[in-house]
Amino acid sequence: MNTITDLARAYHFAAVRHTNQKRKGKAGEPYINHLTEVTELVASATGGGDIDLMIAAVLHDIIEDTGVTKADLEHAFGGRVAGFVSEVTDDKSLPKAERKRLQIEHASHISPEAKIIKLADKTANLHSLRKSPPADWPADQVEDYITWSQKVVAACRGTNKWLEQRFDEAVATFEIR
Ligand code: ZN
Asked: What spacing in Å lies between the alpha carbon of 57 and ligand 1's midpoint?
């Protein structure tokens, strides 16, 4: 069983693997800032009682964005953590538009824990988009991203009211036509 020590290990594991990555926003924040925000949201939403879930939140982008595999995660943090991360991982061999379509389709079928990670991820991404949008994104690209996020979140609703409210508040900070 994972403990708070393993959560600390997960943060360092993620910081090392994501070292050279930055967020897409014009401020170019270190990638780890996104992982700490998602994990804080997950912890606040759930009271922090499920350490595996918080570890999975720390590691939620690690298969997609680094060379770490599901088997590596199984070995380092156990099958439950690896399973949650795998549930929120896109198949990168597919074209981007197809991956985005599949996220909407798959979101209603994933576990409640994976839905919580997804809700926190989409909320954190809207916070970033508000604070530091990518320099090369025109307004309609921002709007398309918000609309797509709303569709993914719609498939996750009924899982965690507090987190769903945080997402709705984040959407409300944008002026959408
Ligand atoms: Zn993420």
From this structure: 9
Cα distances (Å, whole numbers) of residue 108 to 10, 98, 103, 156, 159: 27, 17, 9, 6, 11
| Catalytic machinery residues | 64-65
What CATH number was assigned to the domain covering residues 4-172?
1.10.3210.10
Domain boundaries, the chain: 4-172
The pLDDT profile of the chain, 177 residues, written as one tens digit per residue, is: 999 999 999 999 999 999 999 999 999 999 999 999 999 999 999 999 999 999 999 999 999 999 999 999 999 999 999 999 999 999 989 999 999 999 999 999 999 999 999 999 999 999 999 999 999 999 999 999 999 999 999 999 999 999 999 999 999 999 765
Residues bordering ligand 1, an ion, CB closer than 5 Å: 61, 121
